[in-house]
Amino acid sequence: MIPVTKPFLPKEEEFQEYVDSIWERQWLTNNGPLLNDFELKLKKYLDIKHLLFVNNGTFALQLAIKALALSGEIITTPFSYVATTSSIVWEGCKPVYVDIDPETFNIDPEKIEAAITPQTSAILATHVYGNPCDIDTIQEIADHYGLKVIYDAAHCFGTRYKDKSVFEYGDISTTSFHATKLFHTIEGGAVFTRDPELLKKMMYIRNFGHNGPDSFEGLGVNGKNCEFHAAMGLCNLKYVDEILEKRKLLSLHYFEKLSAIKASFPKINDDKDYNYAYFPVLFESEELRERCLEKLEQSNVFCRRYFSPALSTLPYVDQVKMPVCDDVVKRIACLPLYHSLSFSDLDMICRIIVRTQNYDESVPCPAQDFGILVADKIETEINNLNE
What we know:
The structure is a single chain. The protein is α/β, with parallel strands linked by helices. It has two domains: about 10-235, Type I PLP-dependent aspartate aminotransferase-like (Major domain) (Aspartate Aminotransferase, domain 2); about 240-385, Aspartate Aminotransferase, domain 1, CATH 3.90.1150.10. The chain contains twelve helices and 15 strands. It has a seven-stranded mixed beta sheet with strand order 1-9-8-5-4-2-3, with helices on both faces. It has a three-stranded antiparallel beta sheet with strand order 7-6-13, with no helix packed on it. Strands 12-14-15 form a three-stranded antiparallel beta sheet.
């Protein structure tokens, strides 16, 4: 079986070394030494000043909304994972949807101003598939209207924008370290901010408001993470450059093999270093997508209609039509992409898609021939990485 994703796992003995040290100390959670070491190494790797490791990416969004004391309406995207909207509603705010750009699938900044009302307190935008939004335009709008900006950067580990980590932007940026992400801690997430006072506020909130054993700074909850998850993060951080490189090579191979199909791919922001977190394909029609996915499943290849449904159709929001998003949801699919995916499996996936679209394979197209050459080159590069 080829699933849409598989978690990267380090060498078992490397993780076991950390587990042995946890057993020896018997310090399992509550800001332990591995958690502190992990936060420090993350800051160094990402070249950022402030972050907090929390229990998951959804709580990271809730923490951001709470720390910024948001109320009323929050402008957001209908094309994201459900946590982007559910966090807004959970914190007592109202999501106001703005349609997406048809090329990037990110929130369309040209439509944001029309959605602003006196009740608007913030913009919560998702960097879809790890592809940065139009950050500069969004910030200009926020500054003009006095709004806060939160970025759901759940897919963005390793993505850079204008030579800085994408986590550096917005009042608060959040991410997920769930096992499905290219960098994971099994379960986990993080919040990022340039404001040290805001970081301090979030630090209290994630630990019941404690500012000492017997005193409290304010209202808080349990958003901490533990030593075991920090241990997995420390292990995986050693391999993250290799993971990013392999995903890039796999994605480039996909592009070559699928260059002639009846589909398109998201336009990537020009000012970025992209992390190839997913491989989304926007098929020409819903019917074509369903035929391709059916044929793939018959060969035990499982993709995902990611994201579906549109968040603007959830039962607990004011349902609105978002023409671009509603169309994309019907045609989008993410193909398998993970570190241990082989190039031969990738070729098989592409052959099924191409055949399903009734191409005459007796006449090989140039893209397919070039793809074989690229595969040879990629295998060589991967071997060099492992030496």
